[in-house]
Design brief:
By secondary structure, this protein is mainly alpha-helical. It has a single domain, classed as Arc Repressor Mutant, subunit A, CATH 1.10.10. It is 82% helix and 0% strand. α1 packs across α4 and α3 crosses α4. It is elongated, with a radius of gyration of 15 Å.
Length: 77
Amino acid sequence: MEKDRDFQRKENLEEELKEIWAAIKRLPDMEQRIMQMRYSQGFTDQEIAMRLGISSEDVRKSVNRARAYIKESVYPK
């Protein structure tokens, strides 16, 4: 019984991650790059800004917009 619940949780998490990455792929190119650099590659806002030639504030704004879009796409109200 416990193994069944663990298996179901794992399946749910895998499906959720697929939905999140699908939403990221629908973002504008720059926001996709920023999200991938931040969450897949572990770059800081400052490192992303330097590599992309934008300000750290622009990185933060892009992350906030992207996260809001992903949240609405994956967890609609």
